[in-house]
Amino acid sequence: MEILTLLKAIKMASFIALFVILLFHGLVEGCGLEGSKSPSPVHDKVPDYFAIDIDGTFLTRDRDAMNKNIKAFRKALDAGHRLFFATGRGIAGAEHAFSREDFDAMGYNGYPGVYLDGAIVYDDAGNVLSTAHLNSRIVKQLALLAKKNCYRYKPLMVTSTGMYLVCEIGLFYRELYRRYVLSNDPVVIDVDEIDNHKFIYFVSDHLDELLRQVDGLPGVDYNVVPVGGTYMKITPINTNKAVGIDILLRHYGTDMSNCGCIGDHYNDLEMFGKVGVSYAVGNAVPAAKRAAKHTIEETNNEAAFAKVMERVYGIVEAAAKNRRALRKLIEAGYQPLFCTGRPLYSAVDVLRELSTEGVYKGYPGIYDNGGIVFNKENKVIHTSLFSKEFVSEICDKAIETGLESTVLFLSSSGLYSLVSKCECYDRLVDIWEMNIELRVATKDEILDAGIIQIMVSRYHELMDQISAKEGVDFINKMGTCKIGDMNPLGTTKAAGLKIFLDSCGADFNDCCYIGDGLNDTEAMEAAHISFAVANASDEVKKHAKYVLKLTNEEAAFAEVVKLVYGKNCLCGKLIPSFNSLVSAPKHFAVDIDGTFLTADDAALAENRKAFANALRAGYNVFFCTGRPLVSSLVALGNDFVQETGYRGYPGIYHNGAVVYGKSGNVLRMEKFSEDFLSGFCSYVEANRFERYVGFCDMHHTYMLTDDSSQMKAAMDDVDIYEPPIVVTPSELLTKDITLMMLRKQEIITGQPQLSRGVDYIMKEGSLGGWDVTTCNSTKADGLKILLDSYGSSEIDCGFIGNGTNDIEAMELCAMSFAVGDADPGVKQHAKYALNESHHEGAFRRVIEVIYGVS
User: Fold this and answer.
1) Residues 521 and 596 occupy one common structural domain
2) Residue 823 sits in which domain range?
């Protein structure tokens, strides 16, 4: 049976609004889309280990590609794979190639690793597993020959810890060797000192000329490895990357078939042939491409390593997921659109091939926080401009206070500044990675440009000087890096979305939204389905319908689209892995009558079991009911209390008038005042309504008459079997009365001095009766107090109910459910309307889906 049916089926949400910086910007705030699920690896056997060449392969001059490689490295490690360097560099040279921040981001410190082309191998603790050395006689012969023409040969001898020269080669070549071999500066030694060192390899320009003049044979006494150009090196015989990898793998109890590798050059040939999976990058030498089992089109400067991680391990970079998913979303007939604080000419930068291929060029879209709206034909259907008077005052005050460099003016066609050095622009270049030229303009030119948005990096310092007031004359949202993001009054993303949706003949019931910033809050509230990513602030999360577990860097958006639009979407059926995406609430409030309690003994037993298992799993499940505490425990039974230790607290009773903390301490008791009760009792007695009213505290029910015939059925219905205690009005004033049970609503509505919603709250009660509490007592009021005692909020609370006394709680909680047999007027206030009735175990099913227990 389908468990969840949204009040409006999500698959009818034809539009999905994307906050562009959040969704597509890989470095700052990026997510992903449908179809971006990590692809299945293309290899039959996925290797547990993976060897990585550095130069020409992993290392790249392009910082964006470098970041992709680093992220892919970390994700592969986090997924349980063992990655390590296999390089011609020494360990110090590897450390020189990357910053400490890079290593931290990779989650790797250089160990384990295969260095100096397999001549030295380290385990993950940095212990040396193997070293190999050249015959010193051959090294000495080569050194003597090279020294005769040092400028031509530029010889270098390398040990595991240092670099040595026998003649001066100049600063340029010293730095070249220092950069690519080891980080220390080469030391000049005499040829006679060569016997005192254990050299791992000898590098020289035109080395082939020297080798023809020395003893020993290549392949017998040493290996010859091309380095690049006319440079070559010799390494110890039977030493190469493949040998070093084999030593390392044997140390870990596995073999070469359980390893993959990636490389680009001649020193990678042996490992290409020996490991189970091997890749040559697009810029590899032809011999490497021939030797590798697979060749990838991308070069090292195009993040080839990240692409290989995708193929081998299914590691997909978040921004790539976004673009791939956006494409599939459009192909499926949905209309994604940007809804962003960026201008269009900045937003399109993140689309890359999607824009050039015409899949999505940024329109339709809402830009500049709703300041400009484009339809599908790239026509502007709305523009919201600042008045020239407002812009003029900003310019004047910026000039007057010397803050010209803090202000950036945005029009539909470009970015403007009063000065050439604009700190606000510089920040955005870094944050948004913009390629948009700044236009230095006069005040008059800026006024004529039509300004949609103004950004101020020192917002309060400047805006305290102007006469216009925030929230009265303009809107400000503090954006990325605390930059003030100003728009004309009434300009929000939600307003822009409404204009677009109206133009399509649609409304917010057809819209899904995801975001992270303060400029997203109105749209989150307006959209039928909205999500806040995990890295959003707590303030922003309060406005979203759902809060995600995943951050922008974890491609939260990709999972959201899979959830909303994929095969296991929420419309009709809740996916079993629901809480792997949406954070399962730590707290869960449960209505009793018509929700938890059922006449079906089997269903009630299942509900009790689910309640107990959720408690055992560490979740704070508790009652939130119109009943008093004493009759609420009847719903659980004595065995339940003994087994779980739950004695009704924490809990919310009498529709929020009474709240107990987790230790049974009273956090709230909203009782009727003596004046209220005195006047009420006088009215009851004057109109002979005594037998139609019951007055309740947490322990007893009181009546003004011994005739309880009109109240007995209603009391029995909520398991209050103790006969009412008969009291006088004066005696009643001494009791902590927190709820009144009425058989007729006119008993209170007929009192002209009392106003519903002002002096009291009345909700439907048992068997056609009415429950009355004080004017600030609803289940939502009680929930706020209880959650605050935990330092938590409604974002982290679920609720399930069925009645009118549940409406406020349903609206409050981030995840709320109405059982299948709830009144339609109640269901519309819940986030989800269940198909299962309370007799069919709706409560148990929700607990099973949300918490994975039953």
Assistant:
1) no
2) 587-669+779-851
State both tokens at 17.
């609004």
Judgement on whether residues 453 and 568 belong to the same structural domain of the protein: no
Same domain membership, residue 210 and residue 189? yes
Find tokens 């309640």 and name the residue: 611
Single residue among 444, 469, 489 that ends a domain in this structure = 489
Quote the tokens at residue 516: 């992270």
**CA 772 to chain CA mean position, Å:** 43
- If one counts every other C-beta atom within 10 angstroms of the C-beta of residue 672, the result is 25
Q: How far apart are CA 75 and CA 82, in angstroms?
A: 11
For the stretch 788-819, pLDDT in tens is 999 998 888 999 999 999 999 999 998 899 99
What whole-number distance in Å separates Cα of residue 595 and Cα of residue 819? 7
Instruction: Tell me the H-state helices in 218-343.
Output: 241-251, 269-274, 286-291, 304-313, 318-331
User: What's the CA angle centered on 107, arms 101 and 109, to 5 degrees?
Assistant: 80
Do residues 636 and 646 lie in contact, with contact meaning Cβ atoms separated by under 8 Å?
Answer: yes
| pLDDT tens, residue by residue, 535-568 | 898 899 999 888 888 888 777 877 777 777 653 3
Tracing tokens 């990675």 back to the chain, one arrives at: 433
Q: Residue 452 — φ and ψ, nearest 5°?
A: -95, -35
**pLDDT above 70: percentage of residues in the chain:** 91
Give the Cα separation of 774 and 762 in Å (integer). 9
Secondary structure (3-state) at 700: coil
Lowest mean pLDDT among 31-45, 669-683, 767-781, 794-808: 31-45
Shared domain check, 649 and 623: yes
Banded pLDDT at 258 (limits 50, 70, 90): very high
Res. 96 pLDDT band, cuts 50 70 90 = confident
Cα gap 378→638, rounded to integer Å: 67
Residues in the chain: 854
Strand pairing category for 231-236 and 222-228: antiparallel
- Residue 420 sits in a domain whose CATH number is 3.30.1240.10
Question: Token digits for 470?
Answer: 């925030």
Segment 580-610, tens digit of pLDDT:
456 678 999 999 999 999 888 899 989 999 9
pLDDT-based confidence at residue 642 (cuts at 50, 70, 90)? confident
Q: 364 with 495, same domain?
A: yes
Q: Is residue 617 part of a domain?
A: yes
Q: Which structure tokens are listed for 844?
A: 């148990």
d(CA 221, CA 215): 9
Among 47-51, 113-117, 482-486, the minimum mean pLDDT is found in 482-486
